[in-house]
Amino acid sequence: MFPALIHTITYLKGGIFGVPLFHKRESQFSIRTPWGLSFPPAYVDTHSLSRRRKIYSQEKGFRYQSMEKPESDVAIIDYLQDAPLSDSYEAALEALSSLVRQQKHGDQKTIGGKYGKLDRMRMYLKTLDLEERVAGLKIIHVAGTKGKGSTCTFCEAILRESGFRTGLFTSPHLIDVRERFRINGVDISEVKFLLYFWNCWNQLKEHETEDLPMPPLFQFLTVLAFKIFVCEQVDVSIIEVGLGGRNDSTNVIEKPVVCGITSLGMDHTETLGNTIGQIASHKAGVFKHQIPAFTVLQVSEAMDVLQENARELMVPLKVVEPLDSKALNGLKLSLSGDHQFSNAGLAVSLCKTWLQRTGNWEKLFQKDNREANLPEAFLRGLSTAHISGRAQIVHDSSSSISHVSPEVAETSGDLIFYLDGAHSPESIEACAKWFSVAVKGNNQSPSLVLSSSHNIENINVVWKNGHVQHEKCNIQEFNKISKKILLFNCMEVRDPQILLPRLVSTCASSGTFFSKAIFVPSISTYNKVTSGTSVVPSDISSKDLSWQFSLQRLWERIVHGIDTDLLEKSTKMDGAETSPHREFLYEDASNCSPSNGYFACSAVIPSLPLTIKWLRDCVRENPSLRLQVLVTGSLHLVGDVLKVIRR
Ligand SMILES: Nc1ncnc2c1ncn2[C@@H]1O[C@H](COP(=O)(O)OP(=O)(O)OP(=O)(O)O)[C@@H](O)[C@H]1O
């Protein structure tokens, strides 16, 4: 890490002070500039003068010192030079966290001011001299309730495979805030993130007034995304709406090339309204006069609202059918679950239109003029796009962790995590369907058949590409006891009374049942922005577990019909001190003693690291055990699990 940092700083100094540049570093930055120079454009901004200099000290973190008009970028470089990269990065995250805290405490200075949200966004862009340059970006803007992240990810992969330099802005992140900003399919590097981050931060701080306070977190990240995409000179920017559409920070985009609206459902009702029509109206807010838009099949109440909004703005709105799997020419969508065919169909239409409207379709694909066939680049994109925490299967081998294809994971692991950050009624149903199909392979009984050489072999029946197939396998695999475990948490603004029954009934209708349910608090919180290397808090004594206990009571009520009024009085609410004992895994419901607050089929564990350790110990101690753990209810929980098992 350290030598890389020295190189980088040398490179930057070279860029600024005219010292010959290290060509080696050029590949790290891969910056293309219109001036033919190879330093980040952020560093040639002539307007970026600052009257304060950023100073970093180990004890005090970052602070400002008055200076006589030094270049803010020089101050950033001094700062980066003074502190190890990891400290600089943590300081940036701390600065970001301060934006959440201000917002959370309802500091009117931060969230209010004289101007509306979108006016302020325009003013931030003006402060950073980005207004015109953002107008020059060729944007795909995507709103919707479910599938935005997946649709944007498919679009990014398709257009990158078609030869374009892509910028992708999605939310939220799972492990590290840099996941939100992908350049050519890769998270932005720490060094680049820091350069753009401090450049924006310093300038906005410098212009902070009562009427134009520092932006709340999502507004800042949106501004930062524009800064990054402009400076990185991407050919296409794919921008996912944060929440809603009409009043979302991303809606400063005035003239996208094309807009998309994914599947609509009931989510964020506190902000967007209590009916699907009201929600649709917010999402339709991204439509722009005469700019083409696409959506997927919607319930009629939502579709009517979308069409009405489209008519008013003379938007040609087309409804896209889910992608036909035959169009994939035998390949598989890289994102699993039936719902992804709807997202993929939308992405294909958005990309085609983007290519047509930018004059690239004919140039690139004029030979592929058969309408029914997707160009090769599209197929490559659809079969390789990746986004974590959406129908993701991770095989944990305790000491090392490997990403494997679903088929391999299903037949080779002892502790398998099925990760999906579903947290709305529609998505939890999609997740339950996916999980039920994904675990199928392990649940088939072995059959004995004669091979052509008349030796008896074990044949495992597995689910592959939507078809039952037969595979040779090891007899020990068959002797394993498979248990399905639910690892769940959701935010208190969600309604677990809808989510948990929907999950249980959808799984049950496919014959999938959970042996145990574990409720655990997430590590990440909204008021702290962390990275993959941030410290995982070890103090569990002060954790308030009352939400997790209420989830457990609900679970016991819906799955085992236990009277929750009784439990209300008997359940110990002040904390679960340890992980469950090992026998817990093998107990059945008859061992429940609700009067003592003990349940044989569910548990509250006070921390995620403890939970993962407990699961690992269970499979280590019993070689014939296979645990299939569905982690869902919250993208935060999914991100936390990925973070803990990767350490
Ligand atoms: N088309 C769809 N229909 C129903 N559920 C979906 C669909 N696409 C994705 N999901 C579910 O929603 C979850 C989140 O997917 P994705 O990130 O693509 O959507 P999103 O709209 O960005 O969600 P969020 O607002 O939570 O970030 C997935 O894990 C999956 O459970």
Describe, in plain words, how this protein is organized in 3D.
With about 650 residues, this protein is of the alpha/beta class. About 40% of the residues lie in helices and about 15% in strands. It is built from 25 helices and 20 strands. An eight-stranded mixed β-sheet has the order 6-5-4-7-3-8-9-10, with helices on both faces. α21 links the parallel β17 and β18. α21 (about 495-510) packs across α22. Mean pLDDT is about 80; it is low at about 1-70, about 405-410, about 440-475 and about 570-575. The structure holds adenosine-5'-triphosphate. The site of adenosine-5'-triphosphate (ATP) has 20 residues, from α8, α14 and α18. GO terms for molecular function: ATP binding; metal ion binding; tetrahydrofolylpolyglutamate synthase activity. Its cofactor is a monovalent cation.
